Description:
The complex is a heterodimer.
Chain A: H1 12-21, E1 26-27, E2 36-42, H2 46-54, E3 62-67, E4 72-76, E5 79-83, H3 85-88, E6 91-95
Antiparallel strand pairs in A: 1-6, 2-3, 2-6, 3-4, 4-5
Chain B: E1 14-20, H1 26-34, E2 39-42, E3 49-57, E4 60-66, H2 78-88, E5 99-105, H3 109-121, E6 126-131, H4 133-138, E7 142-143, H5 145-152, E8 155-158, H6 167-179, H7 204-219, E9 220-221, H8 229-238, H9 243-284, H10 289-306, H11 309-325, H12 327-339, H13 349-354, H14 359-365, H15 372-381, H16 391-401, H17 406-433, E10 444-446, H18 455-489, H19 497-511, H20 515-536, H21 538-545, H22 547-550, H23 557-565, H24 572-580, H25 585-590, H26 592-601, H27 613-625, H28 630-640, H29 644-672
Parallel strand pairs in B: 1-4, 1-5, 5-6, 6-8
Antiparallel strand pairs in B: 2-3, 3-4, 7-9
Helix pairs in contact in B: 3-7, 5-7, 9-10, 9-11, 10-18, 11-18, 14-28, 15-17, 16-17, 16-27, 17-27, 18-28, 19-20, 20-21, 21-23, 23-24, 27-29, 28-29
Amino acid sequence: MPSQDDCKPIDDSSLVSAADALLERVRVDELAPGQCATVCEVDVSEASAGQLMAMGVCEGRRVELVKCGDPLILRVLGSRIGLSARLARGVLVEPCTTTACPTDGPTDRN
Amino acid sequence: MRQAKPGVAGVGTACVAFVGNPNAGKTTLFNALTGLRAKTANFPGTTVERRQGRVMLGGRVVELLDLPGLYSLAAATPEEKLAKQSLLGEVPGQAKPGVVVLIVDSTNLERNLYLASQVLEMGLPTVVALNMWDLSQKRGLHIDTKKLGEELGCAVVPITARTGWGVEGLRRELELVIDGLSAPASSDAVSLPTAGGCSCSGCPFSARYEWAEGVGGRCTSGQVASGGSKTEKIDQFLTHPVIGVAAFLGVMFGVFAVIFWIAQYPMDWIDGLFTTAGVLVSRYVPEGDFQSLLVEGVIGGVGGMLVFLPQICILFFFLSLLEDTGYLARAAFVMDRLMRRVGLPGKAFVPLLSAHACAIPAIMAARVIEDRRDRLVTILVAPLMTCSARIPVYAMVTALLFWHEPMMGALLFTCAYSLGIAAALVMAFVFKRTILKGESRPLVLELPGYKIPSLRNAVITMFDRARIFVRKAGTVILVISIVLWALATYPKSDAPMEAVTISQQAEVLAAAGEIDAAVTLKAQADRITNRHALAHSFAGRLGRAIEPAIRPLGFDWQIGVGVVSSFAAREVIVSTLAVVYGVGADTAGGDPDTFRETLASAQRSDGTPVFTTATCVSLLVFYVLAMQCLPTQVVTRRETGGWKWPAFQWGYMTVLAYTGAFVAYQVTSALVG
């Protein structure tokens, strides 16, 4: 099994400092693998923002980090999207309280 | 076979547009309905493609139009803009579609319904094809198609395009809708997102997604079981930064091995076919300029182009299979980080690697790159990769430098390949920092679930690309081949005295019954005549005219003739050198020993040998870096929409080749002496 050693565990200090500023916002690349979050802000170039939003990475959508690294993989609306880390840094999310995704409606996990 | 006329829908012909997300199976469905009758063409004045084909539906001719795969109709990309204009009937020369077939991936309703909301808003009569029904059933997803139809205000037909299941039902539904076109449309109150009074919180996307989520939630039930867990397991390996790259290199190596292994047979057949055609024409057409034009200009030119077809076909066949499985998305994913170092996206890797077989399919394959600048840079540098047409040139130089030294020969080949790759990467880096400035578009890429590929799609893609190449490249290449033929043929000159004397001797010998000796002498006379004729033709004069310019590269005027005549096809240099040095073009391939010895013993006017080590190295470097391929230029024109970029491509590569050869010659001369 390939290792996931290029993934950092959640950095508590950065979480706390982010929480001080804006509720509990973090960048999507700071999530832990398997963690779920709601998108609050997409701050990337216009062309990329259009692409992201059309694929479901937009305000209010729930995303899950499947695999971290560069590029990373997000699960959005039941499909998986490869995302350059440079873009991921512009996507601010509010992590869900539990690591498991709440099952409202059909999800893609078993 | 019914011919579709792109852009012209006859009076009374209904036009049906196919819209859907990428990976929703739109092309598979379109192919299932039209098969090989569909034609691919660009939207007028753009490089975005559409496919069109006419089929019989319920006793009438219907024009089917396959629009590019889209995630949204926001008109942010050229594809989205053109798709939207098509649906609005704003594309010149194309009728406004009467009906829309919206392909929705049933395993991913919410994301697909987002595009649906935008399409339905346009108010065109729509039929929803709910694709991948087998997959969603297997996952235990129950979709209430009747309820979904009510929510969307249109017919919903479940299908599995890959197997053809349900396509007949879709066809019937389409017939009904087309029949009802004259009837006034019933505008039921369907609550589309904009009409539904949403809380638009600054993000216009949110409202649509909330609507899509709502509709999806109301129409589906059942706990989804293990959606794509197999895909995830495979992806742990194939998207891994190390294992993934290794796997990708392995896959591509396999594909190329197959290309070189299989393609040589049809290439030999095509070669043989055109040789036979040439022989037949020589037999039945009286000797003279007209025969020479047919054999060398027309048959030679067309044959030289068609010989690339097998590689183009095989490469696109395999790329289509890989794309269909979902694997190519993973390849772009793992290569992205590496390619970004030279300023290109991961998607540029497959085209650049393909260029090692032939630059033409590589340039065509660069379409997958979304960003215009990224795509242009990929197209510009792709011909620097060593394609198979360079191999004869490399082989000739290797024979001159390292005769019967396989290890050194292999080393020389490796150096030539590496030089091509290095030049391409450096030039890409330079272009991305100068004329096509900008960071590569950051990766945003759907990783679709792995699927069994469709052979049918692969075959259709293969024919489609072959057809485009032959049609687009054919005419231009024919014209240039004739021009080059004329340059090498005119003005005519009388046979030199030497040849006349030898011919006379041959006749004497033949009369005396010494046939073998006579044939040898006659061949010698022909060689001298051909050499003389080429030397005094326009091509020969051009060679002499450019001699001062190419002398610093270590080339004499005869190599100059070779450079001029191989303008359209680089491998021609080998046969041209055979003629100018008096070997006879046929001997170049057939008898390498004679060819090599003649070239090795060729002398300049001052008596020094022509092919010194320095000249050989210089010639090799020149042909690694020079454009010298007209079909590639024509395809670049098609893919960039004008002659500006192919002209620039030719210019920069020629400058690069000249500089490279100059440095190589001067350095090698200084070292070897």
